[in-house]
Amino acid sequence: MDIVVNLLLNGLATGMLIFLLAAGLTLIFGLMDVLNFSHGGLFAWGAYAGVWMFALTGSFLASIAGAVIAGVVIGYIMERWIIRPVYGNHLQQILVTMGVMLVLGELLKVFWGPNTINAPVPSYLSGSWQIGGVILIKYRLFIIIVGLIVYLALHFLLNRTKLGLVVRAGVMNKEMIQALGYNIKRIFTLVFVLGAGMAALGGVLFAPYSGAVFSEMGLQFAILAFIVVVIGGMGSVKGSALASLLVGLSGAFMAYYLPDLSLAVNMLLMVFVLLVKPSGLFGIKG
Amino acid sequence: METRDLTVVFGGHAAVNGVDLTVPRNHFQSIIGPNGAGKTTLFNLISGQLRPSKGSILFKGTDITRLSPPLRTRMGMGRSFQITNVFPNLTVLENVRLAVQSRSGVRYNFFSALSRFDWMREEAFSLLETVMLDKKSDSPAKSLAHGEQRKLEIAMLLALKSDLLLFDEPTAGISVEEVPAILDVIRRIKAEGGRTILLIEHKMEMVLDLSDSVTVLFNGKFLANGSPKEIMDNELVQSAYLGGHYDDAS
Ligand SMILES: Nc1ncnc2c1ncn2[C@@H]1O[C@H](COP(=O)(O)OP(=O)(O)O)[C@@H](O)[C@H]1O
Ligand SMILES: [Mg+2]
Question: Which stretches are annotated as coiled coil (chain A) (predicted)?
Fold first, then answer.
């Protein structure tokens, strides 16, 4: 029982972190048709910026704010000057965004050196509660709660605001949204920056979870996020949320019971979904 | 609206070739011509989806040849597509709302909640009444019949309060029973007045019934222009439509 609860929370927390990456990816792909391989770099930058802020101020809130600001600023620069020139060309997007991923990683080493850096859990979130013999690790619960809040906020943004209506419509039909007089470039920038901010948030949350940051830390999560976007359906935030939890949970349980198979299971899951429903669980693109 | 020597070349073939078209304000102008004559391409040029190889376009007295499609929309130009273009997974009402929202100039106050703009909802709803779709306002657009989707698209066009409307074959691909309803909607729009309308249509009864004047395109060229009656009597037009060859003698 104890172990099951533990794995459950572990899986949910990992799922939430994957979701923070995948939500941006799925919107960026759904709306702009951009294959973005640099998202893992933003994740790592969020983690470093957060750890740096934490060392500077001692405040975890400031560290989260610093990470999100770093993500938003880098995302804005990327979209305006690096991604925008390659809209419409998938091959160039892959090459350019992979290049950005490498550059972002190298820049981290330039600023903070090549070694891993410790990332402490803030005192009020460290330790655990013990309820009826079950140990609940506080920081994991914290990640799950933050993930839930982000999901709900995103859900509200997409379904209850004007921007949301435009984004949902843009995912379905870009040409038509322009024909209605909307400046799609501006919406692209907003969505890209939003995705970048969420990725950086994922990074800063993950740092104390893993205990240390290193420049390639975003890679594994970026791969999982891609699998999730495919399973959930390109452009669907709900699909990504569900698939993130699925992948997070299966990863946690597999790592415990069948450790050799944990990545393979995610791949199999993806292949299975693609065979049954090629557009993903909630795919809205044709 | 005016075009001057408007030309676009696709791989050596001029799909629209030196077209000079002048449409006075509040005029109902139809454009006819056989398939492949370049009618849709002409619309693409006017609405900005395509850039001309040569020539210019004037709208409300300004040269808009270099303007992007969204800017043209904001200047008051609205077009319907030959292929129906609605957002399939949004509700009928949401579709129209998007258009109301775009026109109302609160485009970039993006983060405000939808519910704070109830008048937009009401305006969208009254437009749905105009096109007789108010009963279906909460259904997803994809559940509508083809003709209904076309009517939805027209409601969206009206929401933009465009003063120039471009209709590309509004009855194409629509079942025979649904055609009168579309005709009815266009007639209502014409009767409301205050709009310049360009219509591409193959159904001659409809063209003759609605138009103030008719332009005939053939092989990308301007073949004739006149009142519906003049066009019906025009020999060049008859030979073009009857499959006769139109030799470029002029
Ligand atoms: N984007 C394009 N690229 C190349 N050729 C095109 C393009 N659009 C239209 N054409 C060609 O231009 C001609 C006119 O097409 P179109 O304007 O669609 O005719 P209509 O609407 O009068 O039936 C056709 O020969 C078509 O093949
Ligand atoms: Mg056509």
Answer: none
* Residue tagged 């019906």 (tokens): B232
Is residue B94 located within the same domain as residue B204? Answer: no
Q: Token pair of B247, please?
A: 């030799």
- Where in the sequence is the domain holding B131, given as residue range(s)? 89-161
Burial degree of B151 (CB within 10 A; 0-12, 13-18, 19+): buried
Task: Give the three-class secondary structure for B131.
Answer: coil
For residues B157 and B170, membership in a common domain is answered with no
Same domain, B11 and B68: yes
* Structural domain total, chain B: 2
Q: Which residues of A touch B (CB under 8 A)?
A: 157, 160-166, 168-169, 172-173, 175-184, 186, 190, 284
CB within 6 Å of ligand 1 — which residues? B 10, 15, 33, 35-41
| Rg value, chain A, Cα | 19
Say what the pLDDT of residue B106 is: 58
Q: Which residues of B217-241 are buried (b: 16+ CB within 10 A; e: fewer)?
A: bbbbbbbbbeebeebeebebbeebe
Residues with C-beta atoms within 5 A of ion ligand 2: B 40
Is the model's pLDDT at A49 over the cut of 80?
Answer: yes
The percentage of residues in chain A with a pLDDT greater than 90, rounded to a whole number, is: 66
* Same domain membership, residue B2 and residue B56: yes
B167: CA distance to ligand 1 center in Å? 17
Interface probe with A: pick from B98, B112, B162, B164, most Cβ of A within 10 Å: B98
Out of B111, B127, B161, pick the residue that ends a domain: B161
Query: Which chain A residue shows the shortest CA-CA distance from B158?
Result: A180
Which residues in chain A are contacts of B89 at CB distance < 8 A?
168, 172, 284
* Amino acid B118: pLDDT: 79
Residue A121 is predicted with a pLDDT of 92
Helices (H), ranges, chain B: 39-47, 69-75, 92-103, 118-130, 146-159, 179-192, 204-210, 228-233, 235-241
- Cβ atoms of A147 and A20 closer than 8 Å: yes
Confidence of residue A286 (pLDDT cuts 50, 70, 90): very low
For chain B, what percent of residues have pLDDT higher than 90? 57
Dihedral in degrees, nearest 10, Cα atoms A238, A239, A244, A247: 150
The mean per-residue pLDDT over the stretch A232-256 comes to: 92
Cβ atoms < 10 Å from Cβ of A139: 17
